[in-house]
Write a structure and sequence with these properties.
With 210 residues, the chain is mainly beta. Helix content is 11%, strand content 39%. It contains 4 helices and 12 strands; from the N terminus they run ββααβααβββββββββ. The protein is globular.
Length: 210
């Protein structure tokens, strides 16, 4: 308790701007809630440098270098680009000009009659530019293996061997020539169309994936 008639000397006085002022030093002293010269009571936020950003926050704010360059890497994504592949088994569905074409190749009539109604199976295994093709018609099996753009010995329907080169047009068409016969094999979805031409005779065979 203070003695009567005595007042405790204040430590701070208000200046003309209504700011707290230390009695001894004369310097302004700010307390929480004091207003500044413009009348604002907002407390300035401390400046945070890039190196002081909390761990993890920096990565959330800043885009990755891959994103800045316009490229994206999706970790764990199962989506991939679709690439046309010939790999599969195909069964003959229909054919045109089979008999005249086989006669032009030199096959005997007996063999032509046996083969014209058979639904041959063509199996293709593609590994990039390398192909393995096996055609089974009844008991007769013809096997060819080649690389795009490289010469190889092609086995013909007659059983003969002939030098051939197969080229690829786009990603769904194979074009080859052997012993005067031009062969174009085109894949569209699950359908393969093989068009063979010798002279002015064209044979067209359509097969579907099974």
């Amino acid at each position: 308790m203070q003695p009567c008639g005595l007042r405790k000397k204040p430590l701070f006085l208000k200046d003309k701007n209504n700011q707290n002022k230390d009695v001894k030093t004369g310097q302004r002293t700010r307390f929480s809630g004091d207003s500044d010269d413009l009348g604002s009571t907002a407390t300035p936020k401390p400046t945070v440098t890039e190196d002081q950003e909390p761990s993890g926050q920096k990565d959330l704010i800043k885009p990755s270098s891959a994103h800045q360059q316009g490229t994206f890497s999706c970790v764990g994504s199962t989506e991939s680009l679709s690439i046309m592949s010939f790999t599969g088994k195909y069964q003959l569905q229909s054919q045109e000009n089979f008999e005249p074409f086989m006669k032009a190749l030199g096959l005997p009539d007996e063999q032509i009659q046996k083969g014209k109604d058979l639904k041959s199976i063509t199996e293709i295994v593609q590994d990039g530019k390398h192909f393995k093709v096996t055609v089974t018609t009844g008991s007769k099996v013809i096997h060819n293996e080649f690389t795009i753009g490289q010469e190889y010995d092609m086995e013909l329907m007659t059983g003969e061997k002939a030098k051939a080169i197969v080229q690829m047009e786009g990603d769904n068409k194979l074009i080859g020539t052997a012993k005067g016969v031009q062969s174009v094999t085109e894949l569209n979805g699950d359908t393969i169309t093989n068009t063979m031409t010798i002279g002015d005779i064209t044979c067209k065979r359509i097969s579907k994936r099974i």
